[in-house]
Design a protein that fits this description.
The complex is a heterodimer.
Chain A: H1 12-23, H2 33-58, H3 74-80, H4 86-117, H5 123-132, H6 138-151, H7 158-182, H8 186-194, H9 199-210, H10 212-228, H11 231-236, H12 245-251, H13 262-282, H14 284-296
Chain B: H1 11-16, H2 20-55, H3 72-79, H4 83-111, H5 117-127, H6 134-144, H7 153-159, H8 167-195, H9 199-207, H10 212-223, H11 225-240, H12 244-249, H13 261-270, H14 276-301
Helix pairs in contact in B: 2-14, 3-14, 4-8, 4-11, 5-8, 6-8, 8-11, 11-14, 13-14
Classes of the chains: A mainly alpha, B mainly alpha.
Chain lengths: 298, 307
């Protein structure tokens, strides 16, 4: 499908390894034959074991309950009944994640278009300032953001969390979208504008399909980052009903003094992990492509 | 990626002579860039300015701004009984994770470089943990390490040890979790780096009769220099800001032995002391330290031929 000469970023892993196979580079066959198989199988077991163990024990009997000797979803039922209820936390997490994705996509789509196609005063300064977000530690900004969100009435608000999370996605998203637009020939949208499209019409009708892979990558990364984020909701959310899922699952441990519901925690980890792993496996190529462009900026 | 080569730097003289067309373009450009600018100003630059102001002000968590008190927050931050301990621990943790992750990343990449079915499976196995959030991974290992519910519970009972009970155990248990979570990510970056080495370099070495080890030492490693630079910078920056894994696994314990600098900032701001001013001063110190470390790293990794 993919030949060595045409490197499509969406298939990096395969191309990388095919090229390596041809060149027979050193080091890659340090361990050959049976020792290699034994060693790599052991490694794969180490990497997969925690995930498999958690999934299996999450459906194991719950100690100390009436369901002591039955396999099933007892842990998930316990998790569902926890505090405001798992559905509330799931809905909160989904809301924050989807809003973060939406904000990131809209801002980086428009911004990437501006940076790739227009020249305007302050352009370089704005682009560099966007990238400078990478230089500033997350934790450093959360304390003033806590104060600012309080001041503008967005304290304890999932919208506030999403705005903060979208801001931290901007360096990667803007970089990605600028590159995506720049890789599309200018003639394409210029022709559309000659034919009477406005610049927005050209963006919407002609360029949007062309930059779709970039948008998928940006959206995937924004979703995973928001879904998994812990520190921002930890600092910005104090209301139990507004906690996101990672926070709620972590709180299972401090619920009752000294009593930790390990089974429900495992069930929570599974609920947290499944969407990520499914997304990762389905969109693996975009995931890799994202890392690729991340690597290029070094 | 940093420098913009478009003719934006044409100087003030030409700006005045801007044609109506160029002005229209500038207006359009700004219209599309406006959301970016709003985000950057209100969610990044203003908070950044505020953290500087907070660090020079008396600012209790509940009461808000109480007036300037520079440099009290800074002296109190430096005199905090855990300040130097947390810096020492964070540095120790950073050195350990960086060595392990960069080394393992390269090792795993070399193991799975070729495109056989089995190696693709291995690559995916190593990568799957990096799809998990750090908090989820930490919660998973919290149960795994538990002396009551984990798979090693019986073993721990009979041998009388706990994973997180001693300072050394807590450190290495957390390091193991982080390596498990990130090794695949660093493997991927290494694979990209290995792929960037041109084939003919290896062919030339092969013709010259270089052994595998010689080729690896004299060609692969030196040509991976930019990849090493990137991975080390990423790993150092990430590890210096470690928080979730310690917050969930150890809460900085036992006996504050695993207190990282971010955990200390969090504690000062929201646990016990409730002093945002001192927390902000700590944040500014960390921010400056990180910028200095990054400049130093980028300089150290710059190739001799580029200035």
């Amino acid at each position: 499908m993919t030949s060595n000469s045409t490197l499509t970023p969406t298939d990096v892993l395969r191309v990388a390894s095919t090229a390596a196979g041809h060149r027979r580079s050193p080091g890659m066959r340090i361990v050959l034959g049976i020792p290699y198989w034994v060693f790599t199988t052991a490694l794969a077991v180490i990497f997969l074991y925690p995930l498999i163990w958690t999934t299996i024990t999450s459906v194991q009997p719950r100690a100390g309950t009436s369901q002591t000797d039955r396999w099933g979803f007892g842990n998930y039922v316990a998790l569902a009944d926890y505090q405001a209820g798992i559905w509330v936390y799931l809905a909160n997490s989904l809301f924050v994640s989807l809003l973060t994705v939406l904000l990131t996509l809209v801002v980086s789509l428009l911004g990437g278009y501006a940076f790739a196609r227009f020249s305007f005063p302050g352009k370089n300064l704005l682009f560099l300032t966007t990238l400078a977000i990478l230089m500033v530690p997350y934790a450093t900004l959360l304390i003033p953001l806590y104060v600012i969100l309080n001041a503008v009435g967005l304290s304890n608000s999932l919208v506030g969390v999403a705005i903060v999370l979208a801001m931290f996605q901007l360096p990667f998203a803007m970089f990605m979208m600028r590159i995506s637009f720049e890789s599309v020939p200018r003639e394409l949208d210029e022709a559309a504008m000659v034919d009477g499209c406005s610049s927005f019409g050209a963006l919407w009708r002609v360029l949007l399909p062309a930059v779709k892979p970039g948008l998928i990558t940006v959206g995937l990364f924004a979703f995973l980052a928001a879904w998994n984020d812990f520190l921002a909701p930890l600092i910005l959310i104090t209301d139990t009903n507004k906690m996101t899922l990672p926070l709620a699952v972590a709180n299972l441990r401090v619920q009752v003094q000294g009593v930790i519901d390990y089974g429900a925690t495992e069930a929570g980890v599974v609920v947290l992990a499944v969407p990520c792993i499914v997304l990762f496996l389905v969109l693996q190529r975009h995931y890799v492509r994202g890392f690729m462009s991340g690597a290029f900026k070094g | 990626m940093v420098a913009d080569t478009l003719p934006a730097r044409t100087g003030r003289a030409s700006r005045r002579r801007r044609s109506p067309r160029a002005r229209r373009e500038a207006v359009r450009g700004w219209a599309y860039a406006a959301p970016t600018a709003i985000f950057v100003i209100f969610v990044f630059l203003i908070p950044l300015g505020l953290v500087l102001r907070m660090s020079a002000s008396d600012w209790p968590l509940m009461a808000g701004y109480q007036g300037p008190n520079f440099p009290d927050n800074y002296t109190e931050a430096v005199q905090h009984r855990l300040f130097w301990d947390s810096i020492g621990f964070t540095l120790k943790y950073t050195v350990i994770t960086t060595i392990l992750l960069v080394g393992l990343g390269l090792g795993l990449a070399l193991l799975v470089q070729e495109s056989t079915r089995w190696k693709s499976f291995l690559r995916t196995s190593f990568l799957v943990p990096s799809a998990l959030g750090l908090a989820s991974a930490s919660l998973l290992f919290y149960v795994l390490y538990s002396p009551y519910a984990g798979p090693f519970a019986d073993l721990m009972q009979s041998w009388g040890f706990t994973f997180l009970g001693t300072p050394e155990g807590a450190l290495w248990s957390t390091v193991f979790l982080v390596v498990w979570r990130y090794a695949g990510f660093y493997m991927l970056l290494m694979l990209v780096g290995l792929q960037g080495i041109p084939d003919d370099v290896y062919e030339a070495a092969h013709i010259d009769g270089a052994s595998r080890w010689q080729t690896f030492r004299d060609i692969t490693l030196p040509l991976l220099r930019p990849t090493f630079a990137l991975t080390i910078v990423l790993c150092v920056t990430g590890s210096l800001l470690a928080f979730e894994q310690f917050y969930i696994l150890t809460k900085g314990g036992p006996d504050n032995s695993t207190m990282t600098i971010v955990q200390l900032i969090y504690n000062v701001a929201f646990q016990g002391q409730n002093n945002l001013g001192i927390a902000a001063a700590l944040s500014v110190i960390v921010l400056i330290a990180l910028i200095v470390i990054n400049i130093f790293q980028l300089r150290a990794f710059r190739r001799p031929d580029e200035n």
